[in-house]
Amino acid sequence: MKKSSRILLIIGLLVFVMGALIPVNSFAADVDVYAEGAYTETGFAVYIYADINGPNILSAGVKLTYDTSELTVTSAEKNESVWFLGGESYMDPDISTPGEVVFILGKLDNADPAAGVSGERVLLGKAVFTRNTTNAPSVTLSLGRTTGTYNNFVATDATVLDGSVNFIAATVVQRGDANADGVITFADMSKVRAMITNNEFTIYADCNIDGVITFADMSCIRGKI
Q1: Phi and psi torsions of 17, nearest 5°
Q2: Mean pLDDT score, 72-96
Q3: 14 touches 145 (CB < 8 A)
Q4: Among positive and negative, which fits the CA dihedral 136, 172, 55, 201?
Q5: Most CB within 10 Å of its CB: which of 76, 129, 160, 162?
Q6: What is the DSSP string of 67-79?
Q7: With 0-12 CB in 10 A as exposed, 13-18 as middle and 19+ as buried, what is 63?
Q8: Is the pLDDT of residue 6 over 50?
Q9: Residues β-bridged to residue 94
Q10: Residue 98, φ and ψ in degrees, nearest 5
């Protein structure tokens, strides 16, 4: 074998080995978007979150799709503590199209205009529905705007991230199923206790629907067991 061929073979083997050693999560999406929903006999509420794994983002656009024969949307709101454009009022969620709730979000902090948004479990917004049937509700997530020249997820350097957004299937369980395993048991009371200690929140652990996780939720869960 010629020396040049041997060198090329060695380089090829090194590239193969290095590629095999790259962690799987190095190919993770720049943004993971997911929903958590909790239902009662008559109502259903959904919180939408994002894990921002790549660069900080300045905008987000998410569409929540639902079955109008099973659900009727009553309200939707963005997380105004994170998504705001200086002192301007900007685009409430659009619920005008039956079967869709569209969240178009932007961030412009006058004190640091280029900061953007980063972090895990960033609340994008929430939607509330009434239930029309006894079927367990379901929703799906996708990019907010898919026609025209609009971009949904844009980084602080103006890079469009729409091709690197991972939409994860929604977790939907009965309100009070704090560990989201599909049944309400004493294990859910233990889960709430741990969440209180760790200052955590999920909508399905908020059994009494007061917006916070407290020992009152443990009592609520006990009443459902």
Answers
A1: -65, -45
A2: 91
A3: no
A4: positive
A5: 129
A6: -TTTEEEEEEEE-
A7: buried
A8: no
A9: 102
A10: -55, 135
* Residues 143, 209: Cα–Cα separation, whole Å: 29
Long-range contacts of 207-216 (CB under 8 A, 24+ apart): 207/175, 207/176, 207/178, 209/40, 209/45, 209/175
Contact between 186 and 196 under an 8 Å Cβ cutoff? The reply is no
Q: Name the residue with tokens 């073979």.
A: 9
For residue range 125-159, what is the model confidence (pLDDT) as tens digits?
A: 999 999 999 999 999 999 998 877 889 999 999 99
Centre a 10 Å sphere on the Cβ of residue 84 and count the other Cβ atoms it contains.
18
**In the structure encoding, which two tokens stand for residue 152, read together?**
């949904």
Rounded CA separation 46/39 (Å): 9
The pair of three-digit structure tokens given for residue 4, joined into one six-digit string = 């040049």
Could you give the 3-state DSSP secondary structure of residue 177?
coil
Residue type for position 168? I
Q: Is the pLDDT of residue 7 over 50?
A: no
